[in-house]
Write a structure and sequence with these properties.
Layout lengths: L1 H64 L3 H5 L48 H6 L8 E3 L18 E2 L2 E3 L9 E3 L2 E3 L6 H10 L8 E3 L3 E2 L19 E2 L2 E4 L5 E3 L4 E9 L6 E9 L5 E9 L11 E2 L4 E4 L13 E7 L12 E2 L4 H7 E2 L2 H4 L4
Parallel strand pairs: 3-6
Antiparallel strand pairs: 1-2, 4-5, 6-9, 7-8, 8-17, 9-16, 10-15, 11-12, 11-14, 12-13, 13-16, 16-18
The chain binds zinc ion.
The site of zinc ion has 6 residues, from loops.
Pfam family, one: Peptidase_M23
Keywords: Membrane, Transmembrane, Transmembrane helix
InterPro entries: Cell_wall_metabolism_enzyme (IPR050570), Dup_hybrid_motif (IPR011055), M23ase_b-sheet_dom (IPR016047)
Length: 367
Amino acid sequence: MIQGARQRRGEKEKSFADTAAALVSRKQNLDQQELLSRRIRRLDKAKHGVNFFAKIILCAVAIGRGYNILSKVSGRHWGGTGTAGRRSAFQYNIKMNDLQHSVPKELLQPFGSYPNILNITEEMRSSFHPVIKFPLRNTNTSSDSTCNSSGQKLNEFYDYKVTDLTGNVDNSVIVGETKLPQLLTTREEAVEHARQFPNPVKGFDVGRYDEDRRKMYTSALFDNSSGSSRTVHVGIDIGAPVGTEVYAFEDGIVHSCGYNPEHGDYGHVIVIEHSLSLSSKVYALYGHLAKTVLSNKAGDKISKGQVIGHVGNTDENGGWTGTHLHFQVAVNAPEKEHDMPGAVTLDDRSDALLEYADPRYIIGELY
Ligand SMILES: [Zn+2]
């Protein structure tokens, strides 16, 4: 009897202790969330301040030079002459030390602007495999080029541009002689487009994280039930030719893999649960892929650097003419199979930035 009562009391005390520990842990989490939220609000303020300041500078420059601002930034890319970066000492850690932008660098929300919610160190980032390998723009083969300890030349530059997809500048895609919107209007149009252009000639580009694309996300898929539109992009897009190999950045296990057929959706997509350390995980979504990704099944083991799929054409990527990989990283497992919201409403933005980390913490500085 007594022993039974002691045991029950023991259990009760244990459950009090557990509850207390849970409350402390919840309080710590809330404190951390509040700190990160404050940081995002500060970032917002800074962004708007910079926007205003940048507009004044651009106006002054434009007036001084006597031409329209829009003509200066109306190319598809902010980068203008290119935004390729120098290869760092580490093979896979893309760093951007040589930005050449026609707008102030601050407008690009430089690397490190967002909370590092996954606690990824530079050392970890250096060990990750690229999700897509950018080609080199300019390889200086002269004898005076400097090499790092791995024998790579330090004056090699990756060939890609940073694209502005806010819709404030023309971001249509040129295919052949035709100018097309990024997202075609119907599924039938997408199928016909892919038939006409099975291998469209396309360079590499990057679409930004936390970019408000209210003029681009026009299909019904981006309206939420309360009537506001999901316009803030919370992944990074890597534009690449159809068929470009897509790699796992780290070892992992396939969480889910499938086809999201709705027009404007991910098309073929995979979510991989990657282990960043013994205790921390991240769920990475690789979207807009070709059907080759379906060879992966939930539960499959994936090795770092393994080809998990290929960039899909317009009829298999959700209807996007600018073929690309959408790469997004979540702190928590997605609620739905092979899906997570790639764009959120302005109201949900602060919370979303704490759930979906800036992918540059994984794939390198980029811009
Ligand atoms: Zn995207």
